[in-house]
Amino acid sequence: MLQNQTLTDSSPDAAHALPADSPWRLCVAPMIDVTDRHCRVFHRLLAPRARLYTEMITTGALLHGDVPRHLDFDETEHPVALQLGGSDPEALAESAKLGEQWGYDEINLNCGCPSERVQKGAFGACLMAEAPLVADCVKAMLDAVSVPVTVKHRLGLDYDDSYAFVRDFVGTLYDAGCRVFIVHARNAVLKGLSPKDNREVPPLRYEAARQLKRDFPDCTMVLNGGLADAAQSVAELPGFDGVMLGRAAWHQPRVLSEVSRIWWPGDVLLDDAAVVEAMRVYAATQTARGMPLRMMTRPMLGLVNGRAGAREWRRVLSDQKRLASNDPALLAEAWRGLAAVPA
């Protein structure tokens, strides 16, 4: 699906260079109802080296549900990580085994989601208050799989900005064997704020996140939270081993290509026409298996944002009557309409 790439780790700005062996240099955040397998295929076309993450999948869904529906993915997605939600060490170990068996490159534990639904399941951000339990979970998964076991977490809970809290949390997991931490540089407010507000209201504290790297220098620390564009991602990189983009990658997908172009200038990146054609071909295979076309067009709506004709592009690709035909030719039709609009 992807064109051959000429790969290099040179960088135009030495201050922003990272070790060539840093697999977490550019990551796309796990987002519920967003980063499904079709979205990840699309993101791979935009950023050949980005590390992709599944939506959070609970241990209950894997141990008592439809495993292929949750874990199947396209080979082009590699490197791809499975994010798990849960708090029972045994269930997490079994779920991690399933993830490794299905070919995932990493198992990530969610200790950052603040939603009430997640809290009722006793996992997500509320686990930060139970570091010894999280350590047991991490140890159980490390014993069960050979791929990296990582943790995505916040800086703190509610309105306690004490750095000591997150330092001790990371230290406890470090002692359990975890060496990769994805740090959402905000607190999680467990009561009174929606998940959306939790992405915007608690203040960003990038320096506190950087201090974690200084205190745990042999760990991989990835910065997440508030990174809105390529320039900011590059500017905030020093002091971390990588960045993770979330909503920016959903609303302005080409940000992934912009960051890739800065850090890997020798890579061959697909232009919009090639991306659309690759997605049309992919959609043809998926719709032939009964998958709704809208699952493939949804992540593409923001591809041409800022370009003349972008509104019509979004209108065509979200037209329910046209989508009902489940014909991937709709992608080519939308592209032809866009290309006909004067720049």
Automatic annotation (TrEMBL):
Its cofactor is FMN. Keywords: Flavoprotein, FMN, NADP, Oxidoreductase, RNA-binding, tRNA processing, tRNA-binding. Pfam families: Dus. One of its GO terms (molecular function) is flavin adenine dinucleotide binding. FMN binds at Q83, K152, H184, N224, G225, G226, G246, R247. Residues 28-327 form the DUS-like FMN-binding domain. It catalyses: 5,6-dihydrouridine(20a) in tRNA + NAD(+) = uridine(20a) in tRNA + NADH + H(+); 5,6-dihydrouridine(20) in tRNA + NAD(+) = uridine(20) in tRNA + NADH + H(+); 5,6-dihydrouridine(20) in tRNA + NADP(+) = uridine(20) in tRNA + NADPH + H(+); 5,6-dihydrouridine(20a) in tRNA + NADP(+) = uridine(20a) in tRNA + NADPH + H(+). The record marks N110, K196, R199, R311, R314 as: Interacts with tRNA. It is an enzyme of class 1 (oxidoreductase). The active site is at C113. Its EC number is 1.3.1.91. Catalyzes the synthesis of 5,6-dihydrouridine (D), a modified base found in the D-loop of most tRNAs, via the reduction of the C5-C6 double bond in target uridines. Specifically modifies U20 and U20a in tRNAs. PANTHER family: FMN-LINKED OXIDOREDUCTASES SUPERFAMILY PROTEIN. HAMAP family: DusA_subfam (MF_02041). Belongs to the Dus family. DusA subfamily. NCBIfam families: PRK11815.1 (NF008774). This is tRNA-dihydrouridine(20/20a) synthase.
